[in-house]
Write a structure and sequence with these properties.
Elements: E1 4-5, E2 15-21, E3 24-33, E4 40-44, E5 49-55, H1 60-69, H2 71-79, E6 92-95, E7 98-105, E8 112-116, E9 129-134, H3 140-166, E10 174-177, E11 182-186, E12 192-195, H4 203-216, H5 224-233, H6 237-247
Parallel strand pairs: 3-5, 7-9, 10-12
Antiparallel strand pairs: 1-11, 2-3, 4-5, 6-7, 8-9, 11-12
Helix pairs in contact: 3-4, 4-5, 4-6
The protein binds zinc ion (ZN).
Zinc ion (ZN) is lined by residues 2, 4, 212, 216, 222.
Length: 258
């Protein structure tokens, strides 16, 4: 698999530590790295946990002692993570990069639809569009989730079809996943997978990710030839990379539960 923008770290040798700090439970994922010379800690946005990288020979007891000494540091950083935005009435979701106010209309027909918001509020900071969902309250989150995944699939299939056509390649189906550390992947067998969360990004970002993975159907690496092809398919390579570096992590705060 060729991950983008970062390879997923190996998780098979991971284990978990649980710390209690100021009455809060903190989960620390342990990762042994053969090349690590010392303990290093970082906080992961999407997973909302801390990762402690440890030298291969260090003991679990040493790891726990290190984590406990740094529990306050971890707690501060976890508490600073942006809040989770649930799929619930009143939440604002950036559908294709445009803010939509989620509105629950229990009485209406239809399932999920978008419509312009009434002009009741002229505040320019308020969303101009609503993402509406009907039915019972307990189904709102799942219906919105299903709808966003369908929309993501539609956009990604269209983008992949466009780029494969440009390269005169056979059409490809699109798989959707929810990975933490990559937006798309292309297997050696040529199957393309993407994060459904790209539906929250502006269209030029989704289109670039589709171009990136389609370019991997030709070059299974990140060689100069690969980048040349990616630029040919997408005029927004640099802009989209910059957007993802600045905002990508925020796409994980929608709909998930802590
Ligand atoms: Zn890649």
């Amino acid at each position: 698999m060729f991950g983008f923008p970062h390879k997923t770290p190996a998780t098979d040798r991971n284990s978990l530590l649980t710390l209690i700090h100021a009455g809060e439970t903190i989960v620390v994922t342990l990762r042994r790295a053969p090349t690590a010379r010392r303990f290093t800690l970082r906080v992961r946005f999407a997973a909302r946990d801390a990762v402690l990288t440890m030298p291969a020979r260090a003991s679990i007891q040493e790891a726990r002692a290190f984590a406990e000494r740094n529990a306050a540091w971890i707690a501060v950083r976890l508490n600073r993570l942006p809040e989770i935005i649930p799929f619930a009435h009143g939440s604002i979701l950036p559908l294709r990069g445009v803010d939509h106010l989620l509105q629950h209309h229990p009485e209406k027909r239809g399932v999920v639809w978008t419509e312009p918001l009434n002009e009741a509020q002229n505040d320019s900071l308020q969303p101009r569009m609503a993402l509406c969902v009907s039915g019972r309250a307990e189904h709102v989150s799942r219906r919105i989730h299903d709808h966003l995944k369908r929309e993501a699939r539609r956009d990604l299939e269209a983008a992949v079809a466009r780029h494969t056509l440009t390269l005169d390649l056979a059409p490809r189906s699109v798989g959707l996943r929810d990975p933490i550390s990559r937006w798309g992947s292309c297997s050696a067998a040529g199957s393309l997978n993407f994060s459904w969360r790209l539906i929250f990004a502006p269209p030029f970002v989704l289109d670039y990710l589709a171009a990136h993975e389609v370019a991997h159907l030709v070059h299974l690496d990140h060689s100069p030839k690969f980048w040349k092809l990616a630029h040919r398919l997408s005029p927004a390579v640099d802009r989209a990379e910059a957007w993802l570096a600045a905002h990508g992590a925020h796409l994980h705060k929608y709909g998930a539960s802590p």
